[in-house]
Write a structure and sequence with these properties.
The protein is built from 13 helices and no strands. It is mainly α and about 290 residues long. The protein has two domains: about 70 residues, no CATH class; about 210 residues, MetI-like fold (Orthogonal Bundle). Helix 2 packs across helix 6. The longest helix is centred in the N-terminal third of the chain and has 46 residues. The radius of gyration is 26 Å and the shape is globular.
Amino acid sequence: MTVQTAQSATPRRSTRQISWGRPLRWLVFALLLFVFVAPFWSVLMGALSSRALRSGELALAPNGLTFSNFVQAWQTSSPYFFNSVIVAAAALALQISVSTLAAYALARKRFVGAAVVSLLILTTLMLPEEVISIPLFLVMRDLPIVHLKLTDSLWGMILPVVGWAFSIFVLTEFMRDIPNELEEAARVDGAGDVVIFTRIILPLVRPALGTVTIFGFIMIWDQYLLPLIVTNNQKLYTLPVMLAQLRADELSIPNVFLATTFIALLPSMVVYYALQRYFSAGLLNGAVKG
């Protein structure tokens, strides 16, 4: 009787734990969803409202639906938007190219001082932008050796972000986990470094490429200090700088500012959703390797 009683009590306890666990998980998910979605929703609702919002007011629903705020925001911000697109596209393409080549050399080649080079690359992540702002301005004003002036140009915003230690580090770790047998078999068949790099290494690190593309685009798109250092020409300003000026303008309409903010968020969201499956695969591969 005692054994049967103990056995019959066990399923009841597990059933009770399951019944409490599922609602708690849904509650946590709902809270996290609210924390992350609420700011975007408030910005969108404020941008769609015809009534001007007061300072600090949050809109949960549009007060008089209108799209005129987006029309006015696009008319004002479109030149800066296209500046940001040009800078982000060119800088990201160069950044991915440089990062993959550097990672291939560090991960698949043996040379003297490789550890020192890796350490120097990682140390650049420890330097805040404010620390290097003055030296960066001096270099951009007169590029050493070639003596080119990159200030007051889009190239001055592109070249400083081409080499990013985060991308190099992530791609290097992924490339190191590729079996050497694949490369040796390709060399036996007569493949050179270019063929091995383009047809074997790059397809295998596609999840890592998706990850660094997302982070690289967001890093470049959100650059604020760099355009301020490089140029004083307002025609060359990017969207983050324009948003800061619009925020400081006392005559600006809050709803138009929210619409401009939402426009600035869209490219990052599009890039993330376009590369989401590669990003998820990169995280899963990293977790398995860990």
